[in-house]
Amino acid sequence: MNKTKIAILGAGNMATALAFHLAKQNNTVHLYCIEPDVEQQINKGHCNNKYMPGTKLPSSILASHEIDKCLDQANYVIIAIPSHVAVSVLKLALPHLNKKTIVINISKGFDEKTLNPVVISLQRALPKTMQKQICMIGGPAIATEMVKDSPIALVIACEYKETREKVVKLFRGRNVKTAQSKDLLGVGLAASLKNAYAIALGFCDGLKYSTNAKAFIVTMAVSEMAGIMLKDKADPKTASSLAGIGDLLVTGWSPHGRNRRYGEKLINSKTNDVKKLGLTTVEGIRASEIGLRLSKKLNAKTPLLDAINKGIHSKNNFHKPFVNYIKTVKLELI
User: Fold this and answer.
1) Mean pLDDT, the chain, as a whole number?
2) Where are the beta strands (DSSP E) in 139-200?
3) What's the count of helices (H) and strands (E) in the chain, helices before strands?
4) DSSP three-state, residue 250
5) Spatial strand order in the sheet of 176-181
6) Other beta carbons less than 10 A from residue 285's beta carbon
7) Rounded Cα gap, residues 23 and 21, in angstroms
8) What is the DSSP letter of 232?
9) What is the pLDDT of residues 116-148, one digit of tens each?
10) What is the pTM of this model?
11) CA distances (Å), 8 to each of 31, 32, 235, in order?
12) CA-only gyration radius of the chain, Å
C-alpha cells in the first residue's frame, strides 16, 4: 500500500515538529525549504539543528528548495510559514496542486489588506472547487514539546465535515488528541489574536507580577476575543476552547513562547526592535496592530488590545499603557 505523501511549506521549528509527528505515523513528508544549510542537514544528517536541535528525524522526511518536487503527488499540503508570506507562497504552490489535495494551515496571523485571519485569505486564494478542502490547526502546541511525544490536543477546523474528518484521522496519534470545529473563522481569529495577548502576559512576567495578575489578564483577553468573534459572525465560544484559551495559556506561560518573551524583554528595555532583543519573528506585533484595526471596524470593545498596541509602539517605558490599563479597567461584566 502506498504511503500518504504530505508536503509542508516551511522548515522552521513547527514545520519540523509536524513533519516528525506525521512521519512517525508512517507517512512520507517533504519539506519546502529555502535555506540550503537546513535542506542539507535534513537530507544528509536527518536533523534540523537550526530550528530543532537535538532531534533525530525519521529518514522518511526529505527537504527541497524546489516547490514542484515537494508538491508532486502530495495528498496533503501544510502551510507552516510566517503569516505575512503565506498567501504568496500558496500562489506559488497552486500550479502544482492536485484538485483533490487538502490544504492545511498552521500559520497564525492576519491579512493586513482584508483584516481577515490568514486562513480565510488562503481559502479565497484557492480555486472554488478546492475551497472546501482547507483546514486550520489550532490549539496549544509548542513545537519542542511535540517532538518529545508529550500529550497534546489539537483543534482541526474546517467548514466541511468530510475534509475535517480526514485531517483529524491524519493527525491523531498515540499522544495526540484531535478535536473538531466547523468554525474556521473563529479558530483563525483565536490563533491570530492570542499572539497579541501573549505579549501582555510577557509584560506581567517582566513586571514581576504574580500569577493572579496573569490569570486576570487571560480572563480579559478571552473576553475580548469572544467579543471580536461575535461581531465578526464567528462562534464566540471558540474563544474559551482549545483554540482560544488553550493556545493563549501555552503561549503566555511557556518559556519558549516568542510573544511572551518579547513582552517580558520590553520591560526595562530601551528598544522595541525584535532582533536587538535577541528574537526572531514575533507575530503578536502585527496581530496587535491589525487586530485593533479589526476591532474598531467591528465596533468591538478591546481596551486590553489597545494597551498592548500602545505599549509596543511607545518610544520608551513600553509597559506604561499596560500598567495604566490594569489601574483603570472596569470589570463590569465577565
Assistant:
1) 94
2) 152-157, 176-181
3) 14, 8
4) helix
5) 61-64, 28-32, 5-9, 76-79, 102-105, 134-138, 152-157, 176-181
6) 20
7) 6
8) T
9) 999 999 999 999 999 999 999 999 988 888 898
10) 0.94
11) 5, 6, 29
12) 19
